[in-house]
Design goal:
heterodimer, A: 758 residues, alpha/beta, Growth Hormone, Chain: A, Rossmann fold, 2 domains, 7-stranded mixed β-sheet, 4-stranded antiparallel β-sheet, B: 367 residues, TIM Barrel, 9-stranded mixed β-sheet, 14 helices, 9 strands
């Protein structure tokens, strides 16, 4: 079940992201919708489990519905844009994104949530235990999740399309039901009917997959998604989705739903200024490094300069280059096969960290810090690293969203923040504002500030470069000195914050900018969120506790809320820890897919171990509460402490020994985080069950609290806490929240049998 | 009369005279003989605000009408049209004065501005040293499927502004040294623009007004603008009405209406001829965007311009088409233009004898 849960989640999340062309906020919204619906499912629908007589049969029916709803959700996602009248090239606004993903996920998530509660009930039915069954199901689910993650990443996504994957998943689930139900085949007509339906469905799903029907469905929906254009390729890789359209000899490559590269015609106005201005500003550019986005024009333009000796080009996803080769055009053939070009499939940040080469120019092909991964190319640490890898007079070139037609405070803050960050590292910065993108040239030599038309003509003559027009106005106007004043005026009064690895405020401004375009009604909220700091965060638990004690002093029955609240905060902590781990790892070592997978797996394994230990360990239920409080305490200490381990490690990364050891440390920390988070759930169940006898209700309630906490953590963590408060601040927030829940349960202690102060 | 006026109205004269005007506190201006540098030019433009009197050099067209009170009357006339809005060829007839939204989706008569700043990327004769003082207005009556500014033109992102605020923006742009006031997508806000212009003229605005439009303008409205606008900067997007119908939300009258409109614009302001310093002060400047698969009908458009307007009419042939927004719903325009397509349009323009072409150089550097 955990297996199918995660697989379903990954499949649908990916499909939705292609449609929504997602940034961090989109991921947050989709995940949040998933979790909250699942919480609803296990709490409300799952509770009915208690009343249902034929639990196993109902379980089967729900499984059948779940299996059917997944392919349906995939199909709906693909026809979504057509259905709500939005074109391929058009962004989806905040509200449509929210409600459409909500509606699409509705059946899948609710049914999956309901399955959890049922599983607990059924497990206790089979095993005869009550208190520990929720814990055990939790353990099994977690293990399933780990396997799901592995299978999904290395098997389903690379080898199968989404429909095939979801149908195989259906077959698997249905077979499980068949096995479970088989012993009851003689009990009644209803059971027989269900068994019959199951067999038919298994057969049908199998036929759909093996008979090629799934492929047809896939082709049909992909065609619908791309408005009947000529889709010549559609494939998922570990890193994302690439869809290639062909149109009269031109190929458009959509990367996760966004038109990325058009061959053989580049985006001339942008590519020419992005490449030629810095290359002409540098006296003798020989070695270039292009981090992403080099194919499809950039490298081709750079190769026109006779001084260029070598271009190193990093592109994370090998699939993109494979497809560029599969659909060759004169442009891509010549640029990718040039002997001076060396392509490496590695995270740009990692390449820069590990290389011993030095460059004259570093061009960053990612033009917006729209998610945590992209933000790593806009931080102080990254800029310092590029500075180390640049030769004397070298230039770092990067782009940011810019607009000459729409000025907003959000855009101002984003540009101002990155500009200030660049300024803290480089002594000269030339900003070239443009429509769509602002170009930033940064260097320690003043050459970039003085380059003008005369100098360009001189360089062209010097290198015998042939030009169509000597210097076309569209290049010349970019160097107009008026732009300098223009930019100073533009960022006046903008954010003065510095974007750093562990405090990625640039991401927050990027999300705010997106939000201002698509959901202007929420602009006020984002402005408030930006002001959040630790003092305000610290104030909230205090206010919450005051309110809580006030209510309690009025004899309002709240004692039952302590444990679910604590599980809620643990769910929150779990989600945030997971996010922080991935985030910190990416920042320190770069994005390495298998390592990220390993981190998540260790985290989940930790959670499974934690849950397993506490399911078995305290024989006496009276000890449960004590242990629960202790774990609570440990989580608090851990929250306040562990980010400092990273900061300390990060400072000593110079030697290779530390470099390797610290990676191991990361895994250990993942395991510990998981262990702490996982340990509480089974205990909570047992404590709660002493007062309350309904297993399904308890399991449902606690699982829902866990998910709600995760929901809250997912949205708040990725969009607000990490970007605005940074790594340490976020961890502090978790600590404070856990402290609140500890105070709540400690003061309620007496109400639980065997609790602390009797 | 107009021609001799144009000859005298160079930017240098304008700057020098206004400076002198300020220094001499209203004495009749005379020739100074020597060229002034940019610094004194800046001083001049910052001080011009205080002078309500006319300089003898460049005088924007609207100033005369402002003085006679005609500008205010024309603004009122346009405002009255909004009661049953017929400001653009859609003539959808909604009562914008009561806050109704028409086809352009502008919020009633309320003006929404998305940006106001000196722009250095417009046509060279509009940019000079100080930049073109662009004011971007939100919403649009044409609503093309390939719009590159769809967040502004279709979603209407921007800030509501009063006409006084718009006048303030114009004066602010003059103060920081811009060479003109460039109103982008003005058609559906023409009443507010004229009101603001009247206020700004009273407070010292002396820059030429650039009417940066899709070209799809009603003659009745253009007559109202006669004598107000100094530089018309219309697009000529399509030759074929089937194409304009398809890509610009059913505007099948686009080619016909735009042809008439461009002829009238030319009648009003004549051929665009920059002053000695290269800055444009008056005239017609046509923009044409080459589209994939000849959907724009570039060659036909060049032929028509050559036949119906002087050969030295300013024509900017643009190459930056990019499939954006809803363009992916139409396979024939969901791609970029090729070098050959651009060359063809330029070649035809030269062939039919057009001499004042603004050409981009397709892929600028050769291999």
């Amino acid at each position: 079940m955990g297996f199918s849960g995660l697989v379903a989640e990954i499949l649908v999340l990916r499909e939705l992201l292609i449609v929504f062309s997602g940034n961090e906020l989109c991921i947050g919204i989709i995940l949040a919708n998933w979790l909250i619906l699942e919480a609803f499912g296990c709490f409300v629908v799952g509770r009915k489990a208690e009343k249902s007589g034929n639990r196993l049969e109902t379980f089967t029916v729900i499984t059948i519905l779940f299996s059917l709803s997944l392919p349906t959700a995939v199909f709906l996602t693909r026809i979504l844009k057509t259905a709500i009248g939005i074109s391929v090239g058009e962004g989806v606004g905040f509200l449509p994104m929210f409600y459409s993903s909500f509606l699409i996920l509705l059946p899948v998530s609710i049914l999956h949530g309901a399955l959890f509660t049922f599983s607990c009930r059924i497990y206790s039915m089979f095993s005869g235990e009550d208190e520990s069954s929720a814990g055990r199901v939790y353990v099994y689910e977690t293990v399933g999740t780990i396997i799901g993650g592995i299978v999904c990443t290395w098997l389903l996504i690379p080898y199968l399309n989404t429909f095939q994957a979801s149908l195989w998943l259906a077959v698997l689930n249905l077979v499980v039901c068949l096995v479970l139900l088989a012993p009851y085949r003689k009990t009644g007509l209803f059971q027989k009917a269900i068994l019959g339906v199951l067999s038919v469905l298994i057969f049908l799903s199998g036929y759909l997959v093996l008979g090629g029907q799934a492929d047809r469905l896939h082709d049909y929906s992909v065609k619908a998604q791309w408005k009947n254009q000529n889709v010549v390729h559609y494939q998922n890789s570990q890193y994302g989705n690439i869809c290639t359209l062909e149109n009269e000899g031109q190929y458009i490559f959509f990367l996760d739903g966004i038109a990325g590269i058009i061959t053989p015609v580049p985006d001339i106005p942008f590519v020419e200024e992005f490449v030629h201005l810095p290359l002409l500003a540098h006296p003798e550019p020989a070695r270039l490094l292009v981090l992403s986005g080099g194919a499809g024009g950039v490298i081709n333009e750079a190769l026109k300069h006779p001084s260029v000796k070598a271009i190193e080009y990093s592109e994370l996803d090998p699939l993109l280059l494979d497809l560029l080769r599969k659909f060759p055009t004169s442009l891509t053939e010549s640029e990718l096969n040039d002997a001076r070009v060396k392509i490496r499939h590695i995270d740009g940040r990692l390449l820069l960290k590990t290389t011993r080469n030095k460059y004259d120019l570093i061009l960053v092909g990612i033009h917006e810090p729209s998610n945590l991964q992209a933000n790593r190319f806009f931080t102080e640490e990254f800029f310092s690293l590029t500075k180390e890898r640049l030769n004397n007079g070298g230039i770092l070139v990067l782009g940011l969203p810019g607009s000459l037609t729409y000025s907003s405070d959000e855009l101002k803050n984003l540009n101002s923040c990155i500009f200030n960050t660049l300024k803290s590292v480089f002594s000269h910065i030339r900003v070239i504002p443009g429509d769509g993108k602002n170009l930033f040239l940064s260097s320690d030599s003043p050459g970039i500030s003085t380059i003008d038309r005369a100098q360009i003509i001189e360089r062209l003559n010097q290198w015998n470069l042939e030009a169509d027009v000597v210097v076309p106005w569209r290049i010349e106007n970019k160097l107009h000195h008026g732009w300098q004043d223009w930019f100073s005026r533009f960022v006046e009064g903008g954010s003065e914050k510095i974007n750093s690895d562990f405090n990625p405020v640039g991401l927050f401004y990027s999300i705010s900018h997106w939000n201002a375009l698509f959901a202007p009604s929420l602009r006020g909220l984002f402005r408030q969120l930006e002001r959040i700091d630790l003092r305000i965060v610290a104030l909230l638990p205090v206010v919450f506790l005051l309110l809580y004690f006030l209510l309690r002093s009025r004899n309002i029955q709240l004692f039952r809320s302590g444990i679910p609240f604590s599980i809620f905060t643990t769910g929150f902590a779990g989600m945030i820890f997971d996010l922080m781990l991935i985030f910190a790892f990416q920042a320190i070592y770069g994005y390495v897919f298998s390592w990220i997978g390993l981190l998540v797996a260790f985290f989940m394994a930790g959670a499974a171990c934690g849950a397993m230990l506490t399911t078995r360990f305290p024989e006496q239920t009276t000890d449960c509460f004590k242990l629960f409080t202790k774990i609570e305490l440990v989580i608090i200490c851990w929250s306040f402490g562990w980010p400092f381990i990273f900061l300390a490690v990060n400072a000593y990364l110079g030697s290779p020994g530390v470099f390797f050891l610290s990676k191991m440390l990361f895994l250990l920390i993942s395991l510990i985080c998981g262990l702490l988070v996982g340990a509480q759930f089974p205990l909570a169940n047992r404590i709660y069950l002493q007062n309350y006898t309904s297993l399904s209700r308890t399991a449902g309630l606690l699982y829902a609290s866990d998910l709600l906490g995760g929901w809250f953590g997912g949205i708040a963590g990725a969009v607000v806490l990490l970007p605005v408060l940074g790594l340490v601040g976020t961890s502090m927030t978790v600590g404070m929240l856990k402290l609140t829940s500890l105070i709540v349960i400690a003061t309620q202690g007496g109400r639980y049998p065997g609790g602390g102060k009797t | 009369m107009k021609d001799s006026f144009l000859e005298k109205s160079t930017r240098r004269n304008f700057l020098r005279d206004t400076t002198r005007l300020f220094l001499a506190a209203g004495l009749p201006s005379t020739f100074l003989g020597c060229a002034r540098n940019e610094a004194s030019g800046k001083e001049a433009t910052t001080t011009v605000e205080k002078s309500a009197k006319t300089a003898s050099g460049f005088e924007p067209a609207y100033l005369k009408l402002h003085k006679t009170g005609e500008l205010r009357k024309r603004a009122e006339k346009l405002r009255a049209i909004m009661q049953e809005c017929r400001l653009c060829p859609r003539q959808c007839g909604v009562n914008r004065l009561e806050g109704e939204k028409g086809f352009c989706r502008a919020p009633g008569a309320t003006l929404v501005v998305s940006a106001s700043h000196p722009h250095f990327g417009e046509e060279r004769p509009l940019v000079g040293k100080g930049g073109s003082g662009t004011i971007f207005l939100t919403h649009c009556n044409l609503r093309c499927v390939f719009c590159q500014n769809w967040q502004i033109s279709q979603l209407g992102r921007g800030a509501e502004s009063s006409t006084d605020e718009l006048a303030g923006m114009m004066l602010g742009l003059q103060k920081i040294g811009c060479h003109n006031i460039n109103l982008v997508t003005p058609t559906h806000y023409s009443a507010s623009i004229l009101e603001a212009l009247d206020t700004a003229a009273r407070k010292g605005l002396r820059l030429p007004v650039v009417y940066n439009t899709s070209g799809w303008e009603r003659l009745e409205i253009l007559k109202v603008l006669d004598g107000i606008v100094d530089i018309y900067l219309p697009d000529f997007k399509y030759w074929d009405s089937d194409m304009s119908e398809k890509y610009s939300s059913g505007a099948e009258s686009y080619p016909e209406v735009t042809r008439e409109a461009i002829l009238d614009m030319h009648r009003q302001v004549g051929v665009a001829k920059p002053a000695k310093d290269g800055i444009m002060q008056r005239g017609l400047m046509i923009r044409h965007l080459v589209m994939p698969n000849n959907t724009a009908g570039s060659e036909k458009i060049m032929e028509w311009i050559a036949e119906n307007l002087p050969k030295d009419t300013y024509v900017n042939i643009m190459a930056q088409y990019n499939p954006l927004y809803k363009a992916f719903d139409y396979p024939e325009i969901s791609k970029r233009i090729t070098g050959a397509e651009y060359e063809k349009a330029v070649h035809r323009a030269k062939e039919v004898g057009l001499t004042n072409l603004d050409i981009q150089g397709y892929l600028w550097l050769k291999q």
